[in-house]
Amino acid sequence: MGVSTKPARGMRDFLPADVRRRQYVIGVIAEVFQSYGFEPLETPAVENIETLTGKYGEEGDRLIFKILKRGEGAGTGEADLALRYDLTVPLSRVVAEHRAALPKYFKRYQVQPVWRADRPQKGRFREFYQCDVDATGSTSMTVEAELLSAGADVLRRLGFTDFTIRLNHRRLLSAILDVAGVPADLHGTALIALDKADKIGRDAVVTEMTTRGVTETAATSLVTFLFGLTGAANIPALEAIAAFVGTHEGGVAALADLREILALAGALSAGAHVRIDATLARGLGYYTGAIFEIAVADLAGSLGGGGRYDDLVGMFLGQRVPACGLSLGLERILVVMGERGMFPPAVERPPAAVLVANFDAGALGDTLALAAELRRGTAGTALAVEVYPDTDKLGKQFKYAADRGIPFVVVVGTQEREHGQVTVKALGAGTQEAVARDRAAEYIVTNMGTSRG
Amino acid sequence: MGVSTKPARGMRDFLPADVRRRQYVIGVIAEVFQSYGFEPLETPAVENIETLTGKYGEEGDRLIFKILKRGEGAGTGEADLALRYDLTVPLSRVVAEHRAALPKYFKRYQVQPVWRADRPQKGRFREFYQCDVDATGSTSMTVEAELLSAGADVLRRLGFTDFTIRLNHRRLLSAILDVAGVPADLHGTALIALDKADKIGRDAVVTEMTTRGVTETAATSLVTFLFGLTGAANIPALEAIAAFVGTHEGGVAALADLREILALAGALSAGAHVRIDATLARGLGYYTGAIFEIAVADLAGSLGGGGRYDDLVGMFLGQRVPACGLSLGLERILVVMGERGMFPPAVERPPAAVLVANFDAGALGDTLALAAELRRGTAGTALAVEVYPDTDKLGKQFKYAADRGIPFVVVVGTQEREHGQVTVKALGAGTQEAVARDRAAEYIVTNMGTSRG
Q: Coil, strand, or helix at residue A317?
């Protein structure tokens, strides 16, 4: 019919094998965060356009997908709605709208797609999932410590062992910039340059800062100090930073926060992974306290990041709502797990463990009944069972099962039916055995391990 | 800030209690369908506009949310993308696009939101979930029988016992209309009138048909015959219909299909629920074979429906792809389960079973460590544990737990810490007991039942 059957540009179809992997990771995330008392929130894909515009800067505004007015507004070319761009603005809206229904400490996780009209590139899509976990209502550092531990638990449960949680503090960065001699109005510029250090190198960072108006003395002092900390253990790093910032009020307060987070995380699973990293800047301007980012050696980007942002969630409420959040990079986690072969075998297979063959058109009812029996199983051995829908040659049915990765085919002929038996063919092992029909599910479960080959 | 914090018109925020209910139902649906070998598919929310337009009729085209062009197309007021309107067109696109990667029999379930710019009404939303299960590639009636049984299994697992699966056949309806004397070009009109019988009554159906050009003899013959079957058991109903349609070719073929579905379903869980209902028309024009609808007595609409539609899924492929599908009415199922109080207690509670109190600022690390211990649990007694983030009076913390529905609060003071003990307060029972710290998880699991009150 001439219409392209590709998904829209920058969007993806997730076939069953993709969905299984995605659901597995999302399932682990949900389970771990629920064990910390976080609860699921879902908001609409579509928001009123005023809810979104002006929240993401000029560049962000351009990347929002806008929806045409309908009805009386049709034909005007105007938009009144827009697609969700992140999960923080919807959280802020929900906190304002449903305030009375939410607990004082609202701890929510939200795993939903967002849409950005970015130029699609390798690994960058126009529809992608964000996975945000935020705790609102408290300024206690227990929140940071538990968020980092829950994040660490998720990654460990997924099989990551080699990750580092880089930890810094927005106010500490400001203090270091102040003390180095970077004027307050150039802090943003300096941080942007600093954020590129991994890519462009330290000398280029100094050059970029001086080009933007930072004195060479200040830029050099800053870069020399920050990168001089590389490799330092947490406590010596904090001591060196304390000596550098001296009595700077914000710096002293930030150091106290970091010391507390380190101490609390030390009692938890995050402790072994946290590294103080004074060069960590995080792009977004809204952070007000601790900031963190999860890194693995073989990935340029991060597997997640976040921080404290006490001034943002209250944007619609008109009052301060303290908040701290962690955003896990679901899409990146999936890529790394795929490259490293980290998915458990059960995730990499279709659900059906058994194909019930269909070769006797006269006994179709009994064929379906057999499938139902295997699905019910005996004593906790319920199986996922597919029935070959068309009556056909057995060879074709065996091939179908093999192509689909279904490990067992069960066949029941007239004679077997009379004797209360079935034949179970294990495709991996290549064996074939007659089994009592009411023991077939048990037999298959017992032989599952050996046949998966 | 003057901006409304309500979700956009016709859209909903799902707070944690809503999400838990939704996830529970979706989880049961996924588990049951997977046990029949169905696999999950996900497609993008946004499709190229040409993929959708012209697929849903004139009215449907008007209800599609259209997305404004960006970049060079910005300002033209033109749309190039649109929001998913159903799950059948995306399935058809996927079957064409990913043909080589899909099995010969592609059995997929898909639970995703769709968007329609309908006038919002009570129970009708502009963003709502569809839950479609389709099996493509086979014309065998085993597909119908298994779909109906999987649907029945889902409803039974959710606690429904009183549902009826109304079963009819598109070609049988045509045969009955032919034999009653309704000309072929008025079949559509007659079916629309017939579909309203529940609402407007039989006499009004006859009137509507005659107004639209059906002779009174034909209309009366049709309505008298169809509603004369009311209450008939399946076999007598089929016999009466067979006598009515006589040798009508389509009618005879359709009756054979229905007899086979009844026989096969009889071997499965659907058997007890299926009722032949020759008045069932189903609105959509694309059905080519069996049609079905799941009804419960106290609901005007249906909990789901579907049928065979052999000419639709191949729309983008340019060749026939046989298919049969069941669409479960997720939103309606949720409403009925809510009204009837059918959700299990565990779904109606927040995840945390324990709140660890925080009243000693000097022992925060140990407080967090205790929470981690309870989360790990002992011998399969892992618990979901929330920590009260701020150091505060115990009374406030007990009240917080009670308000949140968290049944246990664990407190550890200096003395208890020294003795390796904790105090466990059961909010339901109002009891408070000192327990060995390393037995606390076990103690709580043991007392869970009594404290939930």
A: coil
Q: What is the pLDDT of residues A355-385, one digit of tens each?
A: 999 999 899 999 999 999 999 987 667 899 9
Which of B 41-100 lie inside 8 A of A, CB atoms?
Answer: 41-48, 50-51, 62-63, 65-68, 70-71, 75-79, 81, 83, 93-94, 96-98
Contact A191/A309 with Cβ under 8 angstroms? no
Determine the residue of chain B that is closest to A127 in CA distance. B44
A399 touching chain B per CB within 8 A: no
Residue A363 makes CB contacts below 8 A (sequence gap 6+) with A412, A414, A417
Interface predicted TM-score (ipTM) of this complex, two decimals: 0.94
Burial B137-161 (b: 16+ CB within 10 A, else e): bbbbbbbbbbbbbbbbbbbbebebe
Nearest in space to B280 (alpha carbons), one of B372, B164, B149, B441:
B164
pTM (whole model) above 0.90 = yes
Per-window interface: B 116-155 vs A, CB < 8 A? 117, 126-127, 135, 137-140, 142-143, 145-146, 149
A196-252 tens-digit pLDDT: 887 888 899 999 999 999 999 999 999 999 999 988 999 999 999 999 999 999 999
| DSSP three-state, residue B396 | helix
Residues B146, A351: C-beta atoms closer than 8 Å: no
* A318 part of contact set with chain B, CB < 8 Å: yes
- B-facing residues of A in 176-235 (CB < 8 A) are none
Helix (H) or strand (E) holding B145: helix B141-158
Give pLDDT, residue B453: 37
- Domains, chain B, in order of start with CATH, read 16-340 (3.30.930.10), 349-451 (3.40.50.800)
Q: Which two tokens mark A12?
A: 């993806």
Which segments within A164-217 are labelled E, that is strand? Answer: 164-169
Using DSSP, how many helices (H) and how many strands (E) does chain B show?
A: 17, 16
Q: How far is B251 from chain A (nearest CA, A)?
A: 23
> Which residue among A8, A37, A103 sits closest to B81, beta carbon to beta carbon?
A8
Radius of gyration of chain B (CA): 28
CA-nearest residue of chain A to B83?
A67
State how far the Cα of B190 lies from the Cα of B222, in Å rounded to an integer: 10
The strand pair at A106-115 and A39-40 is best described as parallel
Alpha helices in B246-387 (DSSP H): 249-266, 330-340, 364-376
Between the CA of residue B210 and those of A76, A212, B189, B282, what are the distances in Å?
Answer: 43, 82, 10, 21
B348 at interface of A, judged by CB pairs closer than 8 A: no
The DSSP 8-state label assigned to residue B153 in this structure reads H
